[in-house]
Design a protein that fits this description.
Layout (H helix, E strand, L loop, with lengths): L12 E5 L4 H12 L3 E6 L8 E2 L4 E2 L1 E4 L5 H15 L4 E4 L14 H27 L5 E8 L10 H21 L3 E8 L7 H5 L2 H9 L9 H12 L10 E4 L7 H9 L6
Parallel strand pairs: 1-2, 1-6, 2-5, 6-7, 7-8, 8-9
Antiparallel strand pairs: 3-4
Length: 267
């Protein structure tokens, strides 16, 4: 394949769940720029259309609650009727407010797990017969979080659900490969329109960034870049694995203690 064609998604159909704002919107815009037919879904329509000036293409929006299997099946059916195929599914819908584990109600936990894990399962199962019946390979990318691989105080259900995405991808990769590649993208601390609500003001975000190897928070565009790589032939031998995009991750706390005390012990 010509190298110039590798990141050209012209004629491909890409679904981005939760693609109307934040990270999902940027991912949608990137695939539009690459020529893809992009379909987004959420419970509420975007405030303004998701549009690419490069290709003069606009994402198609469907109002869908991905936590409900019947609605997901109907949504996927409509996408196939509209475009005839599905090449890439990016399970991006997710999120949860911070709640102490001792205070989280059973209903709250159910909602968080439903959105951050079960919804991805529903979408994966619904696209399977479509992708499996196509001549070309399909790709599923589950957007996870570093919260799924480290302690996540204040987010018990969220962290557990994101950890589940890692196993989901590994399991489906073995069941559905080589026809369908399934991957998890574990996202670190990134700046979005909504991040100030969680990370705090500029000063707090700066302190957070100082704990990362790259000394800055990530940008949604940097996650979208990796989605395009993983969905492309560049990653043709990748499946059933988790790719971490987190600016090097957080420095171990003990390093600061060593620096402050000037002592070091073997461990």
């Amino acid at each position: 394949m010509d190298k110039a064609e590798i990141l050209d998604f012209s004629g491909k159909t890409v679904i981005v769940t939760g693609g109307t704002r934040g990270l999902g919107r940027v991912i949608s815009e990137y695939f539009l720029d690459a020529g893809a037919n992009v379909v987004t879904c959420a419970r509420n329509a975007p405030e303004k259309p998701i549009f690419s000036e490069l290709t003069n293409k606009e994402a198609v929006f469907f109002e869908t609650d991905v936590r409900e299997p019947e609605k997901v099946e109907s949504f996927i059916s409509e996408v196939v009727q509209h475009f005839g195929r599905i090449d890439v599914l990016i399970n991006n819908a997710g999120g949860a407010p911070s709640v102490k584990s001792s205070d989280a109600s059973p209903r709250f936990n159910e909602k968080v797990v439903s959105l951050n894990l079960l919804a991805s399962m529903h979408c994966c199962q619904s696209v399977f017969p479509v992708m499996a019946g196509q001549e070309d390979n399909g790709v599923i990318i589950n957007i996870s979080s570093v919260s799924g691989s480290r302690p996540n105080p204040g987010g018990m259900a969220y962290g557990a659900a994101k950890a589940g995405l890692d196993n989901l991808s590994k399991t489906l990769a073995h069941e559905w490969s080589p026809k369908i590649r399934v991957l998890t993208l574990a996202v670190g601390l990134i700046e979005t329109d909504e991040s100030s609500d969680f990370y705090g003001d500029d000063e707090k975000r700066s302190r957070l960034a100082d704990h990362l190897a790259m000394k800055r928070l990530g940008k949604p565009e940097e996650i979208a870049d990796m989605c395009m790589v993983l969905a492309s032939p560049l990653a043709r031998w990748m499946t059933g694995t988790t790719v971490e995009v987190h600016g090097g991750g957080e420095s171990p706390f003990y390093l600061k203690e060593i620096s402050d005390t000037g002592t070091e012990e073997n461990s």
